[in-house]
Amino acid sequence: MANRAADVVDKLRSLEEGHRALVEVIACGSRAVPALRALLFQREPDGLFQPRCLAVAALAALKAHDVLIEYLSTLRARADPVEQVGDDAVINAAARALSGRRDERAFELLLSLAEARLRPGVIEALGAFRRAEALPYFAAALADDDCRLAAEAALKNLGVAATQALMTVATFPAAEEHESDSRLRQRRSALRLLAETGIDPQAWPVLRHMTADRDPTLRVFACRLCLAAAPQTEKATAVRRLIALIDDADWLLLAEIEDCLTVYFGEAREVIERALRDTAPDERRLRKRTLLALQRVEAHAQARASGRAPHRK
Question: Which of 97, 125, 140 is the last residue of a domain?
């Protein structure tokens, strides 16, 4: 029977038949575990990872988590980048397969993996534990394009427990005059998460200076936070700063500005109506983009208030 299980596991090596063989492998039960372990631990210098990822899926389905923990505990860096790419895919799959476990051994192992190198599967698995000890890794992962989505999801799940870490990331000053792209994306992500989840009004003074940040995207998120949490006396200034960004904003940022002004139209109404009413005729052509955006905001806000869909121009 063991030989039969090994033969079935061998089918996982086929790129054409492997996925179809997975159910057959799982049906072999614990008899397949030794052959699955051998496949998982096999080196693939050509970077092939699909069969080993299927082995991970089978081991997880068979509750053979000890094999996955053993694999993740014995990782070795590869000199060949092609082989390393393949190994990374398997490591991510194995880490994700542990996300359903809540034991300390798995959590400590995932923390050690994150300490060595940030990987999306490891961050995703750590996020499933919803434990504050992993916050430094989630915050660091916001700077990594591959890990950012998993880190954002983990930070959202932590809720208010993540607020201080996000504020630290968002406000940490750049050491160099020209901020690196990864650092800027990290700060944008942190401030956007704060804008989505909200902050306590008492925390607003720490973020106030960011409404004048040199990065337009950061200014938009900071102004959104201002409209949500700042004293009433500061909100008109935030609205004016948002309006001033419209002419030069790309379409994604413009959509963010319009959404912000629509959601907080009660705070923005007076400034918007004044801009639409008091712009001189000779300025209207120069400010056409801004005025059209404000008209859309006004229409969307009125539609929201009446419960009907706005007419799109």
Answer: 97
Flag whether 182 is in a domain. Answer: no
Asked if pLDDT for residue 269 goes beyond 80, the answer is yes
The overall average pLDDT reported for the chain is 91
176 has a pLDDT exceeding 80: no
* Full-model pTM: 0.88
Domain that holds residue 55: 1-97
Three-state SS for the chain is CHHHHHHHHHHHHCCCCHHHHHHHHHHCHHHHHHHHHHHHCCCCCCCCCHHHHHHHHHHHHCCCHHHHHHHHHCCCCCCCHHHHHHHHHHHHHHHHHCCCCCCHHHHHHHHHHHHHCCCHHHHHHHHHHCCHHHHHHHHHHCCCCCCHHHHHHHHHHHHHHHHHHHHHHHHCCCCCCCCCHHHHHHHHHHHHHHHHHCCCHHHHHHHHHHHHCCCHHHHHHHHHHHHHHCCHHHHHHHHHHHHHHCCCCCHHHHHHHHHHHHHCHHHHHHHHHHHHHHCCHHHHCCCHHHHHHHHHHHHHHHHHHHCCCCCCC
What percent of the chain has pLDDT above 90?
73
Last residue of a domain, one of 97, 120, 136: 97
